[in-house]
Amino acid sequence: MNYINNRGPIITVQDPLRPGRYVQYRDLNWQGMPEIISFTDYLRWNYTLDYGSFIRKLHERNELPLSYNISAKSKVTNVTIVDGKYDRIDCFSFIMYVICDVGFSCAGYECHQQYCVSGYFRTYGSSDFLNDVKLYNGERIRCRNPLDHFLVPIMSKHA
Q1: What is the pLDDT of residues 85-98, one digit of tens each?
Q2: Is 44 left (phi over 0), alpha (psi -120 to 50) or beta?
Q3: Which of 4, 90, 106, 130 keeps 20 to 30 A from 30, CA to CA?
């Protein structure tokens, strides 16, 4: 059983009897949302299924970039949000780079590939969390004005 979202009052799990469908269960260990959460956790709790649907649709339309060991006929089995990097544009908007781990079923074996899903957030205006997808192989994401996971500006030593 692969957990899609394992924090929060509801746990969403892939249905083992119907591939591509999900079952939701009440999390009996949930003690309520903490007072302070990171934006990455916010995305994990609220947008994991959206990121999964976006990646699955791209894969179905053969628009998802694949590494050499994953065929176009493979099926996406699981999508999880691993990490997030945020680059401030101004006081009201930032660019987001969300790292997702995608599990594929390839000819009877399970393989994983990480993707960087880019998007942007605007306080006043339209936001697009799911703008573009690229293969991610652990390279460093360079941000001009980096924000940490709590969207707080990071000060350099020279400031």
Answers
A1: 999 999 999 999 99
A2: alpha
A3: 130
